[in-house]
Structure formats: C-alpha cells, structure tokens
Automatic annotation (TrEMBL):
The keyword Ion transport applies. Gene3D superfamilies: 1.10.287.70, NAD(P)-binding Rossmann-like Domain. It catalyses: K(+)(in) = K(+)(out). Residues 1-42 form the Potassium channel domain. It comes from the Eukaryota. Residues 58-159 form the RCK N-terminal domain. This is Uncharacterized protein. The chain crosses the membrane at residues 20-43. GO terms for cellular component: monoatomic ion channel complex; postsynaptic membrane. Its main location: membrane. It is a multi-pass membrane protein. It comes from Oncorhynchus mykiss. Pfam families: Ion_trans_2 (PF07885), Slo-like_RCK (PF22614).
Length: 159
C-alpha cells in the first residue's frame, strides 16, 4: 500500500492518502531506529571472535587467566617498560568473557600492540584462533587478591 507499485491500486480519498503518508513516516522512523541496533549487534558479535593472522618475523604472546583492567594495565606497563628496549611483540589477550567498556577502551588505546579474543585456552578451536602453537610465550595472569589461593592456583594449572 505504501510502496510504488504498478498503479493497480490507488487511493482516492484524502483520508486514505493521509493515512499512507503517516504510515510511511512511522515506518521510516521505526526502520531508522532499528538499523543502528542491528548493526551494533552484528559488529559486537564478530568483534572478539576473529582469528589472529600473524605477520611473518613478528612474535606474539598470548595472555590469559584473570584479565581485568588493573591486571592488563600492570602487565602492559611491565611488558613494555623502557628497560626492555623496543619491544616489537603483539599481545593477544584470551578471555572467556566479553570485556566491559573500560577494558574495551584500554584495548582500543593499545590497538597497535594488543588484541582481545573471546575464548578459552581449554578449547582447541580458540587456541588455534590465537595461533598458540606459534606464540613466543603463553602467560597466565593470576588473581593476586583472591581469598582462596588454592582454588585460584588449581584453576590456573588447568589453563
């Protein structure tokens, strides 16, 4: 009714034409509201699910375990400290969660050196995605502030 058709149906009354005009504007408004949400869902779903494509001659390390903003910041500060000289290593964080906005902003700040992948080191597919077999190192970050150190150690040993 609101599309350009073959002309076999035409509105003759003013009320009918007014209804179609309002119907078109409401439809366009609803469509305009839903498009950004759908795009956001599609982008977020694929954002952390990709695979690492390494550059030949460049090393990468995989960091997993207790990844938080403070632990990731401390790791990067220590890993890229000036005493180590120029470090040309790609850091891949692998976590079985979606990063919150603060952690995502941290990863974006370091986007040339850091990439986050959603997954688990217990899954073969995820280890292949981050090219674990070609990594220069696999580092496991522990929760230093845990109340149950034995449980944390057991979880890290499984990783």
């Amino acid at each position: 009714m609101s599309t350009v058709g073959y002309g076999d149906v035409e509105l003759r009354t003013t009320l009918g034409r007014l209804f179609v005009i309002i119907f078109i504007f409401i439809g366009l408004g609803l469509f305009a509201n839903f498009v950004p949400e759908v795009v956001h869902i599609i982008i977020n779903r694929k954002r952390f699910d990709g695979s690492f494509t390494g550059v030949s001659g460049k090393t990468h390390v995989v960091v997993c375990g207790h990844i938080t903003l403070s632990s990731a910041s401390a790791f990067m500060k220590d890993f890229l400290h000036e005493d180590r000289g120029e470090v040309d290593v790609k850091v891949l964080f692998l976590g079985n969660f979606r990063p919150n906005q603060e952690l995502e902003a941290f990863f974006l700040r370091w986007f040339l050196k850091v990439t986050f992948y959603q997954g688990s080191v217990m899954q073969r597919r995820d280890m292949e995605r981050v090219k674990m077999h070609k990594a220069g190192a696999c580092l496991i970050i522990c929760d230093r502030f845990t109340s149950d150190q034995h449980k944390e150690d057991a979880a890290n040993l499984m990783r």
